[in-house]
Fold:
Amino acid sequence: MLVHTIKEVREIVKEWKKQGLSVGLVPTMGALHAGHKSLMAKSVEKCDRTVISVFVNPIQFCPGEDLDKYPRTLDADCELAQSAGVDLVFAPSPKEMYGEGHILSNDFLTYVIPPYFYTDKLCGKSRVGHFDGVCTVVNKLFNIVQPDFAFFGEKDAQQLIIIKKMVKDLNIPIEIIGCPIVREESGLALSSRNKYLSEEDKKEALVLSKILFNIKNCYKKGITDVKALKETAFTFLNENHNLEYLDIRDNDTLDEKTVADNNSRVFIALKIKNVRLIDNIMLGS
Amino acid sequence: MLVHTIKEVREIVKEWKKQGLSVGLVPTMGALHAGHKSLMAKSVEKCDRTVISVFVNPIQFCPGEDLDKYPRTLDADCELAQSAGVDLVFAPSPKEMYGEGHILSNDFLTYVIPPYFYTDKLCGKSRVGHFDGVCTVVNKLFNIVQPDFAFFGEKDAQQLIIIKKMVKDLNIPIEIIGCPIVREESGLALSSRNKYLSEEDKKEALVLSKILFNIKNCYKKGITDVKALKETAFTFLNENHNLEYLDIRDNDTLDEKTVADNNSRVFIALKIKNVRLIDNIMLGS
Structure:
């Protein structure tokens, strides 16, 4: 079922709760792919009822980012959701979520701001304000749907860590479930932004997973010095790859490591032409 | 009943909800007086069960403010709460609310930040960050207790307006009930900080309510020019009164008025010696 208003979602979820059913939420920006499908499947497996939200959240896009051209494919999204066993698709308009008649900023709207220590690094460094927008909209979706569980992909690992931190800091009564990255056979991590890549770009984009897999192999062979691990990346990089960051950090605190351990995660971001891609891998699993 | 942990509150409220009972929350910093009692009475009247929180919230105090010497009177508070018909007193430690081992700031903790447009004026101007701390702790208390209704005094009118805005902006599923200011027979608005006043200071403190009542009288007589209304205050002020602000603003948006109307509220803050006092009045009621 597809609904567009907060009122409708609330009524449906209220009815489910009356019946004692557990509710899972998968927040998305649509343009759903097999990565999202794995999140929906996880929720359908764990919860009696599953809601997905489809909302391209304007306040998490920074100036110059791809808000207007971000892929919007609601019909296909609804089909995929239904095939995954989702019970309810919530696709609100920006007006439904933020009202109208004022500028979408912390000047006129209440924001949920994650700790600077978690947002001044990795993607937060180039995408200033991005995680403020993410936490604010996720908090709103949590309050609208009031699920028991919410499912997020490890693909956006910094986002997942920040949301877990938000839930802890604000005592939000929801359990956050992180789900593994889904990759093409080639190794490329699925992303809605892969649609921007030509076939040739996609080959170049394999550099992200190659670097990550290689670092993990080196770690498994006993190399724990972070500087040495990061230097192994240079074999793979060429002039088509505009590296933004390659960091090895603690998976809970995002502290930078000098010596890697099983709780370390490797994070990478780079641009192929104008398409910004991210990927990451845990060293210990 | 008195509990100190989040876990205990949640278990008790969960049990009430299972029974279909409605829950009211009165967030306080303790040092309860008849003003708080009126909030509790309102909740007891409206809801099946009433929780009050007693927590002197460190993150809403600014540097140099009275965090350490703020009155703490938990035994008396519990007695007053019981006499008012409150079912549960939640009095957590700072550690229970914020954990330990890190600095209490947005560097390391997720904050809920109300719009700058609402906080750059009135009390927010001198108490920078105060309302960020208020919104953050209130959001946490809402998530911990998950009440149906929450009760706040109009005494802190800017706070009430900001909390209503937060609830709207973040789609928090709780109804906020504002309750009228309780005054001594003299006109002095009740405040926990009145404890800092000597008998002589208390007489001087009547200037706040005198100014407000007089402005309201003038408005009722037909004067709507804000400049003229504000000028009537000078009759009452003397060298013992350190006026911080006297503003007439819209009761929903906090926009400054040039012509007063029934939805205008008069806000005043001034210091008697080192004690900062606030008061306010609606023109239209």
About this structure: Chain B has two domains: 2-179, 192-279. Residues 165 and 171 of chain B are 10 Å apart (CA to CA).
